[in-house]
Design goal:
The longest helix is centred in the N-terminal third of the chain and has 27 residues. The chain contains 20 helices and 14 strands. By secondary structure, it is of the alpha/beta class. β9 and β10 form a beta hairpin. It has 4 domains: 128 residues, 3-Layer(aba) Sandwich (Rossmann fold); 163 residues, P-loop containing nucleotide triphosphate hydrolases (Rossmann fold), CATH 3.40.50; 81 residues, Helicase, Ruva Protein, domain 3, CATH 1.10.8.60; 59 residues, Arc Repressor Mutant, subunit A (Orthogonal Bundle), CATH 1.10.10.
Length: 457
């Protein structure tokens, strides 16, 4: 039985919701104001929330919504109000509400919205479970080393500096460290230092007081305070401004922060995990990164290898991404053939795991069949580079190996001679007509930017 928390100050509305929701086999919990609603939310963690906008008691619906989102952002909140406007609806959705329903409530619209909200939440939870597994996906020796470090370090208070190329999985390592720590039931707050302008990073990290600068119309709680008792993940810390670096260093040394425009030190209990795709040692030499902060952060270093250095993990990742993509998009389960998998393993993956995930999602969504083979990869303009080694591993017969090796050799020769068939045939000591037959047989095509064949001019 699904549980609905209804927060509304009007008894008549609560009684009406009780009658219609219980008739539809929902379990209903009620609260007459925002503060009581938050307490009920914490204790029961319902499947969805119906929340009124206008309520007495010092906390209106919008403020309540923000607090509920802080506690658990996975649980959908549907705003209901008899005093709302289009602007209110837009603001509610921007603040994280699933939907907005005007009073008096339309019974059918209410049940459709509740069903959609709960289904989306359940789907999100299932996808999250799959994503949580990503931190332990992989059987390569390098991945096992990282997992062992996480096991040893996760439950300590030691700071960790994660390095690696973009898309290699640094964020997943940080999440795994948080989940294995004593702080796992407290917030994990993430900050992408590269995505925040230099003039705003201090406000983002430490908060600001009202009127501290132009545009500071309200007090703001920074990420350090939001992460109090939990973990603060500073992603791409190599892009942080010098001024912000100095304040972060002070926070790490003293365990206290000061909001921009404030004059009071605020104690914070935060474990900091940092990550970067840069060499901080090089940045220190350039004078763009503080050496003292580097040593504060680099207590436990973890280097995440690029995907091309752990190709044996690709099948595990591909199958997980297929499952996730099918589940999230309501697609029937699909499988990938051994030949197609070997083709994916041969690719260089400059974008690492992030690129692999995106490619798999594209293949699953765009392909029509239940099985993904090389033909589907080529049809979707994804043709990983074949090598003799991958051909050996993925060929189904000796004849298959010979054909694919010959096709690879002919294409190489055509490229060497700018796709001039006559010169290529001469270099290969082959009749031109015979070479044309081979090109047609293997479906070889010149690149779009290659010059035309001299024979075709």
């Amino acid at each position: 039985m699904k549980t609905i928390l209804a927060i509304d100050d009007e008894k008549s509305v609560r009684d009406s919701l009780k009658m219609i929701l219980e008739y539809e086999k929902y379990s209903v919990i009620f609260a007459e104001n925002g503060l009581k609603g938050i307490e009920e939310f914490k204790q029961n963690l319902p499947d969805a929330v119906l929340l009124d906008i206008k309520m007495p008691g010092g906390m209106d619906g919008m403020e309540t919504l923000k607090e509920l989102r802080k506690i658990n952002s996975d649980i959908p909140v549907i705003i209901i109000s008899g005093h709302g406007t289009l602007e209110t609806a837009v603001e509610a959705v921007k603040s994280g509400a699933f939907d907005y329903l005007p009073k008096p409530l339309d019974r059918d619209k209410l049940f459709i919205t509740l069903r959609n909200a709960i289904e989306k939440r359940n789907l999100h939870v299932e996808v999250k479970k799959i994503r949580d597994k990503e931190t332990i996906l992989g059987s390569s020796s390098k991945m096992n080393e990282i997992l062992e470090i996480i096991k040893r370090v996760g439950n300590t208070e030691a700071r960790v500096l994660i390095t690696g190329e973009s898309g290699s999985g640094k964020e997943l390592v940080a999440k795994a460290l948080h989940r294995s720590s004593k702080r796992s039931n407290m917030p994990l707050v993430e900050v992408n230092c590269a995505a925040i302008p230099a003039e705003l990073i201090e406000s983002e990290l430490f908060g600001h007081e009202r009127g501290s600068f132009t545009g500071a119309t309200n007090q703001r709680i920074g990420k350090f305070e939001q992460a109090d008792g939990g973990t603060l993940f500073l992603d791409e810390i190599g892009d942080m401004s010098h001024a912000a670096q100095a304040k972060v260093l002070r926070a790490l040394e003293e365990g206290k922060i000061e909001r921009v425009g404030g004059n009071k030190l605020i104690a914070v209990d935060v474990r900091v995990i940092a990550a970067t795709n840069k060499s901080l040692a090089d940045e220190i030499k350039k004078g763009t990164f503080r050496e003292d902060l580097y040593h504060r952060l680099n207590v436990i270093p973890i280097s995440v290898p690029p995907l091309r250095e752990r190709r044996e993990d690709i099948p595990i990742l591909v199958n997980a991404f297929i499952e996730e993509t099918c589940l999230r998009n309501g697609i029937a389960p699909k499988k990938i053939t051994p030949r197609a998998m070997e083709s994916l393993k041969s690719y260089e993956w400059q974008g690492n795991v992030r690129e692999l995930r995106n490619i798999v999602e594209r293949i699953i969504i765009m392909s029509s069949g239940a099985s993904i083979d090389l033909a589907e990869l080529e049809l979707l303009s994804f043709t990983p580079k074949e090598t003799v080694d991958t051909i050996v591993q993925s060929s189904e017969s000796f004849q298959d190996f010979k054909d694919r090796a010959e096709a690879m050799f002919i294409k190489h020769q055509l490229k060497l001679h700018n796709w001039n068939v006559s010169k290529t045939a001469e270099a290969m000591e082959m009749e031109r007509s015979h070479l044309y037959t081979k090109i047609k047989k293997y479906g070889l095509e010149r690149d779009s930017n290659s010059p035309p064949d001299e024979d075709e001019k």
